[in-house]
Amino acid sequence: MLPIVTPIVLLTLVFALDIALSSPVHPCTPYAVKDSHVVPRKWTRVGPAPADHRINLQIGLKQSQFDELERHLYEVSDPSHHRYGQHLTSAEVDELVKPSDDALELVHDWFLDNGIDRHRLEYNSAKNWIKGNLDAETLIAIDYPTPLIAFTIGGRPPFDPSAPTTTDTNEPYVTWLNYVLAQPDLPQTISTSYGADEQTVPYAYATLACQQFAQLGAGGITLLFASGDSGVGPTRACLSNDGKNTTMFLPSFPASCPYVTTVGATKDFAPEVAALDPANNFASGVGFSNYFPHPAYQDPYVQDYIAGLGRVSVPDGVGRGSGGAGWDECEYADGGGGGWFGE
């Protein structure tokens, strides 16, 4: 089987619609369509794309030694391990995640079968990829004079609609990751306040993004993500998007990825509790991932938490799983205010 992760095609509206309704593979080969995605709302088919239209086609290949990369990540991140703080270099990370020669040859053959010469291909370094203003001002006020770098990425990623989220407002994390992984120098800490319901992010896309987060982590970059704003899920909309409308908790991604640091919000003292503001429809996001298992270091905490639920009635499938558990850390975050042009 061709070890290709979700292909991402950057193209015009007209071309996308035409290709979405036709076969993207050579008819004489054993290849098959791995994933397909819904046409964005308000798009209409107007006809075939021009024959001379140029496409920037990006194909992600399976990382050959991700298990080994994960081992390094946990060792250099564990204060009790003798390798703590001995992060990998970019070259060492690239060596672990580069695809196998067989995978590259299969992709090259596929291109040749479809009339695309090798000299037209470009690779990244590992060869595995053919509310911002308020957040920034808050960081500047707290951390001055620490330098601040803002990343802004356009576009939208693959998307699976759900009851609470019918329009693709998700962030193109893989586009951003491909960019930052190619940079020679990066900040030691990168904080992101955006996220999405995990189930709206196609599994293959989420897996690829999560593995690329691990690449940054193994190199010593701390990735902070907000846990979310809807508790275990939006009110009256905690339903699966697989066509069954099963009642379930809706964790947030990338907060659900085990290779990032998920930050939750608390309020009050003695006891300190999860931040909740019903008047503004806010509850700090929590929950277990439905995509990724929790790492071994979370075992005792997750087991204690589950045991502490006691006789609390939780329907099957909505919160007693083995997925990655948020939060990793929490901050007091109750009663913040903001102004915009005097309002």
UniProtKB/TrEMBL annotation:
Residues 64-343 form the Peptidase S53 domain. Gene3D superfamilies: Peptidase S8/S53 domain. It is found in: Secreted, Extracellular space. Its main location: secreted. GO terms for molecular function: metal ion binding; serine-type endopeptidase activity; tripeptidyl-peptidase activity. Keywords: Calcium, Hydrolase, Metal-binding, Protease, Serine protease, Signal, Zymogen. Its cofactor is Ca(2+). PROSITE patterns: SEDOLISIN. GO terms for cellular component: extracellular region. GO terms for biological process: proteolysis. InterPro entries: Peptidase_S8/S53_dom_sf, S53_propep, Sedolisin_dom, Tripeptidyl-peptidase_I. Residues 1-16 form the signal peptide. This is Tripeptidyl peptidase protein. It comes from Lasallia pustulata. The lineage of its organism: Eukaryota, Fungi, Dikarya, Ascomycota, Pezizomycotina.
